[in-house]
């Protein structure tokens, strides 16, 4: 056994709690752990799902492998293994997915859309076809010229009463659809968001089913120009695409008409609120943070913490042995708070998923009164989590020194996967501003008219009592800060507008404070949700203590990073800030011996991370060497390019050196 493996073994012997029990808490119960492991094993054991490591493949190979595997998974594995939406297996299905996948927009964005925008007949027509991969459909909303400002979208769907068709057109280059996943190569249909025009009148954005490729030849249909947008920062396996449509005709029935309809005579009938058009985005904002950001940070923590426990560099005691870098307080200060972020955002996110499910049940009964609250919450939660996880993964990557820059560490892949979560499904700043709008409105309301999650905004500020680092007091600081920040930002908007600025100008001039206030609001939500979870969870004392420490660390780390805010608002004194700083350092020291145990509890398989630094056995150096040998550049002992371009000068060098030798 290598020295490094031995070090990791010793770390595990020193853990003071049951790793298996923490895994159960993380998964949502013992039964969930069993189900997850069963799903992971079925996928892991299947030889069809084996591929070379992604860092040894070209983009084309990665796209091909991911498509091959995903077609196999969605056609052959899901049903066979009882993995269907609503089942426990489905909840844990992400943990079993290959490291790269395609067809995600088809499965994860289009299918939910057809369910929320389609009438019963339309769902009956399109759902079985798409579930069986008989059609592949992308979600084509963003255009080359517009992504955030949806009222600015330019693609048009004009009703032709004569033929009972819609004519789809992208009037300018900037109007072509750009970015949608699965669109460049795989899709033969697109759910196109286009401006509906009937009898010369514009009715705004509506969803249309548009066939873009021939079903037998897969060739683009007349009027359709479609392709892959090219190499990106990451997502190499995914065919994000462009789609330029010129006079593409679709039948009238292809307007997804659950919420609005165009009758054969051209009458436009609105059946539900326009805002439900945005429902598919709320759905993804609620559901994607876990698999696309939180689990990504959890993997980065697993890699960085295991590696830091075996990487020895420098001395703590002069004259002593070299220490594992995890023993440095500064390394702990980088990495252990990231673990706290993983836990806080995961348990807060579960609360939002439950709230969203309750909203959907009410909506089915015609009640959408909670729409504004769930929109505000999901928008700011997606923004905050994506930001925290992206920053966290980069901290983990840099904490691994030089090896963190190598693809073999798995960290660049994780970083390039988490970074676009700040942009897709709503650019973060734009989403924060949406929530700000809601908060400013709420700040003017009476308590009786507000949902519970927002009541603190209008309630009197309470003073903390007792131990300043207790979870209750930390929760109170976050609430007080959020309330004061929202009130201050609202006040600024009002003052600007009272001075004579138009409302939109007053809003823009206050937008820095508005986004700041929204961040304060969502952090208080996340902290509060995590603290409530920790209080209520049923588990042993030792596991509870780990969770309490992580929760406290999450709060303290955040406060210490922006203590200026708490001081400015009079929530904390300089004395409090000193106590908070020392309390954080003490918690790092306390959690250090359990750090490897806490990441082990995530229970990621080695194959789900493809990391030479983060594998369970800690054999980092052998793995790095083995992976380097697999580099396509090492296929031959002499690479043709170096031979071809360098040889003349090397020969010169040889003659000089050999001449020098003969003179000696
Ligand atoms: C087989 C496995 C599948 C499992 C799937 C499970 C999970 C899925 C997981 C993973 C999926 C994985 C990976 C996904 C990878 C990539 C996906 C990327 C997909 C995309 O990337 S896809 C494009 C998304 N692209 C956007 O995201 C555009 C952002 N841009 C907007 O979203 C709007 O354009 C906005 C908000 C800026 C409009 O701003 P605006 O100021 O112009 O507003 P507007 O006048 O239009 O709205 C007036 C009133 O509507 C309210 N309102 C607005 N939005 C609402 C909403 N959502 N719900 C309820 N109410 C809403 C307002 O609050 C206002 O209310 P009020 O007047 O009362 O204040
Ligand atoms: C990997 C990936 C996958 C994607 N998949 C899909 C998909 O499947 N389907 C799809 O339709 N789209 C998809 N998209 C597109 C994505 O949804 C958009 O890129 C996103 O919504 C942001 O819009 P934008 O690009 O227009 O950014 P812009 O809005 O142009 O943002 C540029 C800058 O302007 C700022 N800004 C914009 N508006 C305001 C404002 N009102 N106030 C202050 N600042 C503002 C932003 O904060 C940002 O800093 C994907 C994108 C990526 C990167």
Explain the overall architecture.
The chain is α+β, with helices and mostly antiparallel strands and 664 residues long. The chain folds into 3 domains: 375 residues, Butyryl-CoA Dehydrogenase, subunit A, domain 3, CATH 1.20.140.10; 137 residues, Butyryl-CoA Dehydrogenase, subunit A, domain 2, CATH 2.40.110; 27 residues. Helix content is 53%, strand content 10%. The chain is built from 21 helices and 13 strands. Strands 1, 2, 3, 5, 6 and 9 form a 6-stranded mixed sheet that branches. The protein has a 3-stranded antiparallel sheet with strand order 4-8-7, with no helix packed on it. A hairpin with a 4-residue loop joins β2 and β3. α8 packs antiparallel against α11 and α13 packs antiparallel against α15. The two termini are 49 Å apart. The model has no long low-confidence stretch (mean pLDDT 96). The structure holds ligand 3IX and flavin-adenine dinucleotide (FAD). Ligand 3IX binds next to α6, α8, α10 and α12. It comes from Phallusia mammillata. Its main location: other. Belongs to the acyl-CoA oxidase family.
What keyword list fits this structure?
AcylCo_DH-like_C, oxidoreductase, 13 strands, flavoprotein, binds ligand 3IX, ACOX_C_alpha1, alpha+beta, Butyryl-CoA Dehydrogenase, subunit A, domain 3, 3 domains, Butyryl-CoA Dehydrogenase, subunit A, domain 2, FAD binding, three-stranded antiparallel sheet, 664 residues, 10% strand, binds flavin-adenine dinucleotide
């Amino acid at each position: 056994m290598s020295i490094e493996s031995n070090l990791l073994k010793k770390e595990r012997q020193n853990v003071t709690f049951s790793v298996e029990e923490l895994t159960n808490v993380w998964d949502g119960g013992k039964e969930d752990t069993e189900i997850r492991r069963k799903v992971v094993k079925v996928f892991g054991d299947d030889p069809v799902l084996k591929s070379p490591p992604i860092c040894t493949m070209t983009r084309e190979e990665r796209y091909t492998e991911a498509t091959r595997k995903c077609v196999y998974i969605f056609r052959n594995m899901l049903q066979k293994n009882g993995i269907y939406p609503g089942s426990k297996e489905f909840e844990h299905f992400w943990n079993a997915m290959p490291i790269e996948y395609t067809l995600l927009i088809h499965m994860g964005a289009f299918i939910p859309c057809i369910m929320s925008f389609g009438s019963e007949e339309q769902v009956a027509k399109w759902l079985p076809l798409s579930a069986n991969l008989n059609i592949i459909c992308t979600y084509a909303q963003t255009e080359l010229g517009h992504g955030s400002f949806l009222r600015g979208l330019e693609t048009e769907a004009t009703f032709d009463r004569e033929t009972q068709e819609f004519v789809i057109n992208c009037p300018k280059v900037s109007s072509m659809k750009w970015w949608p996943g699965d669109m460049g190569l795989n899709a033969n249909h697109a759910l196109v968001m286009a401006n509906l025009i009937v009898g010369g009148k514009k009715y705004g954005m509506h969803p249309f089913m548009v066939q873009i490729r021939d079903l037998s030849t897969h060739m683009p249909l007349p009027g359709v120009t479609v392709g892959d947008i090219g190499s990106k920062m990451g997502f190499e396996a995914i065919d994000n695409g462009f789609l330029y449509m010129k006079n593409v005709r679709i039948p009238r029935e292809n307007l997804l008409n659950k919420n609005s309809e165009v009758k054969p005579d051209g009458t436009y009938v609105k059946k539900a609120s326009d805002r439900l058009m945005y429902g598919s985005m709320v759905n993804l904002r609620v559901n994607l943070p876990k698999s696309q950001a939180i689990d990504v940070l959890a993997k980065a923590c697993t890699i960085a913490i295991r590696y830091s426990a075996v990487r020895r560099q420098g001395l703590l005691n002069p004259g002593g042995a070299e220490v594992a870098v995890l023993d440095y307080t500064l390394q702990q200060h980088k990495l252990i708070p990231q673990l706290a972020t993983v836990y806080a955002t995961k348990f807060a996110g579960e609360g939002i998923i439950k709230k969203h499910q309750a909203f959907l049940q009410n909506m089915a009964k015609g009640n959408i009164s909670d729409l504004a609250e769930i929109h505000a919450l999901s928008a700011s939660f997606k923004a905050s989590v994506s930001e925290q996880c992206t920053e966290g993964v980069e901290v983990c990557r840099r904490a691994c020194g030089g090896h963190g820059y190598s693809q073999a560490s798995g960290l660049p892949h994780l970083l390039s996967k988490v970074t676009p979560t700040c942009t897709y499904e709503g650019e973060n700043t734009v989403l924060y501003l949406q929530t700000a709008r809601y908060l400013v409105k709420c700040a003017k309301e009476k308590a009786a008219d507000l949902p519970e999650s927002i009541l603190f905004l209008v309630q009197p500020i309470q003073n903390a009592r007792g131990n300043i680092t207790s979870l209750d007091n930390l929760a109170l600081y976050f609430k007080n800060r959020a309330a004061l920040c929202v009130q201050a930002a609202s006040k600024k908007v009002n003052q600007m507008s009272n001075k004579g600025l138009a409302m939109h100008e007053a809003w823009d001039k206050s937008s820095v404070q508005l986004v700041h206030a929204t961040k304060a609001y969502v952090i208080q939500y996340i902290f509060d949700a995590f603290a409530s979870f920790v209080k209520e969870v049923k588990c042993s004392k030792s596991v509870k203590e780990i969770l309490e420490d992580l929760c406290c660390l999450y709060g303290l780390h955040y406060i210490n990073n922006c203590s200026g805010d708490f001081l400015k608002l009079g929530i904390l004194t300089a004395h409090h800030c000193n106590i908070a700083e020392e309390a954080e350092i003490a918690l790092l020291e306390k959690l250090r011996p359990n750090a490897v145990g806490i990441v082990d509890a995530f229970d990621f398989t080695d194959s789900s991370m493809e990391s030479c630094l983060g594998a369970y056995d800690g054999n980092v150096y052998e793995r790095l060497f083995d992976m380097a040998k697999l580099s396509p550049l090492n296929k031959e002992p002499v690479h043709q390019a170096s031979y071809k371009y360098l040889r003349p000068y090397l020969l010169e060098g040889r003659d000089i050196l050999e001449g020098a030798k003969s003179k000696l």
